[in-house]
Amino acid sequence: MNVPGVKFNFPVINNQPSNHFLDFSFDYKELSIALSNVNKESALGFNRISFKIITKLSEFVKRKSSYVYNDMIHTSNFPRRNYLCFFILKANSNKVRPISISFCSLKLLEKMIKERLTQWMEHNNLINNSQFSFRMNRSCVDSLPLLTSETEKFY
Fold first, then answer.
1. For position 12, what pLDDT does the model report?
2. What is the span of the domain harbouring residue 151?
3. How far apart are the first and last CA of the chain?
């Protein structure tokens, strides 16, 4: 998977003993891409700042916020009260569904980290080719021809 407009020179696993791909600073492009892919109706965190507010910030403020994200990553200094998780019952079931409330700004950071991890894993071929769900440009339906051909081998 490639994040449009963002190119990384990831270290290759086999050639280097360590891979510090997360040490690369997040830039404005990554922040903008992550912000364009968030649910604008997401629940507010404790600071009551929504994605709607964040998307309306000026480019200058967004660029400065990428410095804040990088500082949080490199110093491991995150807001103390940043996450709340609870469970609600699913309708017509005794199963539960997790609900998490976090600062929208931290959800944005999580999204940037997830995108970088996904791109790094794709680049280094760490995801099995038979993994179809939860991958860009692939769906569970794409696995049906593979399942059909494998099933036909035995009959």
1. 47
2. 129-155
3. 36
Q: How far is CA 95 from CA 7, 70, 87, in A?
A: 42, 38, 10
Q: What is the pLDDT of residues 71-89, one digit of tens each?
A: 888 888 877 766 777 888 8
Stated pTM of the model: 0.70
Distance CA(51)–CA(53), nearest Å, equals 5
pLDDT value of position 22: 64
Q: Is residue 3 part of a domain?
A: no
Tokens of 47: 């600071």
Instruction: Read off the pLDDT of each residue in 116-142 and give the average, rounded to a whole number.
Output: 81
Least confident piece of the model among 7-11, 108-112, 135-139, 146-150? 7-11
Is 99 within a domain?
A: yes
* pLDDT at residue 2 in the model: 43
Distance CA 58, CA 52 (A): 13
Is residue 50 within 8 A of residue 44, CB to CB? The reply is yes
**33, 78: one domain:** yes
> If you write DSSP's letter for every residue of 28-84 in order, what string do you get?
HHHHHHHHHTS-TTPPP-TT---HHHHHTS-HHHHHHHHHHHHHHHHHT---SS-EE
Residues 76 and 141 in one domain: no
